[in-house]
């Protein structure tokens, strides 16, 4: 039994508990908070969800989520001028790069990485769409995660785009800004030393 | 900038970030999960919230939250037979005791504890309602948290109920000092209720 407040409350707890970062206990606390702040939180959240269900869609060009398709980034003509296409695994990565203010670039969201063990092959990702789209750009930046699957996916894209002659780059490896050397793994340190830059 | 997906998505993130246990980063992850699982998660959650906004109310007898008032616990005649009224600070505590299976008791939710520093006096809590209701029961169990404020509240209730001659008990020690009921395991809670002592 999740709560003692009837099936409506139980169902709300069960659904909230499926969100990342929330378990059954925190979902119960969240629901009590919602009930306590009905006017300031529960009703606005309910309305915001209704609007999002109605409005949010996936951009047919790049795989981003927005309230329109093509999305605001794909529709912005200034973004096309730099000729840079940044390939990311997930919308969360796109948001992270935008928060970092990386500049006027376009994106392509793969929707995951190649992972044969999990049954994720090229057909499960927006890879054909990327290959079809890439020739419009001068440079393709592979901003995939520095994991085995991410690097496998980067190799696959490099192979497929090789014949086209487009410039392909990847994010630099190195010491995170504000990071301490003592806490970094050897791989990162080794890469950072290899890619040292003149002051 | 919270996301790159338009005002509808930003607003959803901001509202979710106000839930306990979620910050801006986990709210962004939650929203992306909702968008990814639109059919299985976002639409059901939206509908569940709509139903909860409509249905959930505070029980006029005990202060519990339920879809009806009097709530299911107050309406259950078997709960009255034991003549035990368990006084809790919060609905979360009531749920925790119910999960522990403490038996056929009734509850009274104070809605907080006395805390003069925070400006919470007897009028801010459902204390008059408790005093008025208590004579219907043979025993009042003070299941308030083992904090200074909780114990202050217990003393206040004992003083007010003293002249009525009702048996007043409190949860047994076993509740860690400074701990909160909602975080305790069911076994400890159940033992603590069984070993309640007269004040």
UniProtKB/TrEMBL annotation, chains A, B:
Coiled coil: none annotated. Keywords: DNA damage, DNA recombination, DNA repair, Metal-binding, Zinc, Zinc-finger. It comes from the Bacteria. Pfam families: RecR_C (PF21175), RecR_HhH (PF21176), RecR_ZnF (PF02132), Toprim_4 (PF13662). A zinc finger (C4-type) spans 59-74. Residues 83-176 form the Toprim domain. Belongs to the RecR family. NCBIfam families: recR. This is Recombination protein RecR. The lineage of its organism: Bacteria, Pseudomonadati, Pseudomonadota, Alphaproteobacteria, Hyphomicrobiales.
């Amino acid at each position: 039994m999740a709560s003692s407040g009837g099936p409506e409350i139980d169902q709300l707890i069960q659904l909230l508990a499926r969100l990342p970062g929330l378990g059954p206990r925190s979902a119960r606390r969240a629901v009590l908070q919602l009930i306590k702040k009905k006017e300031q939180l529960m009703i606005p959240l309910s309305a915001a969800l209704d609007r999002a269900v109605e409005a949010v869609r996936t951009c047919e060009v790049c795989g981003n989520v927005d309230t329109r398709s093509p999305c605001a980034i794909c529709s912005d003509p200034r973004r096309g001028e730099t000729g840079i296409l940044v390939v990311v695994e997930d919308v969360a990565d796109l948001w992270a790069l935008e928060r970092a203010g990386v500049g006027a670039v376009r994106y392509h969201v793969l929707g995951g990485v190649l992972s044969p063990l999990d049954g994720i092959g090229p057909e499960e990702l927006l890879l054909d769409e990327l290959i079809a789209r890439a020739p419009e750009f001068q440079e393709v930046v592979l901003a995939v995660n520095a994991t085995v699957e991410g690097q496998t996916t980067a190799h696959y894209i490099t192979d497929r785009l090789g014949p086209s002659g487009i410039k392909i780059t990847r994010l630099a490896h190195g010491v995170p800004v504000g990071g301490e050397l003592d806490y970094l793994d050897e791989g990162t340190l080794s890469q950072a030393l290899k890619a040292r830059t003149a002051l």
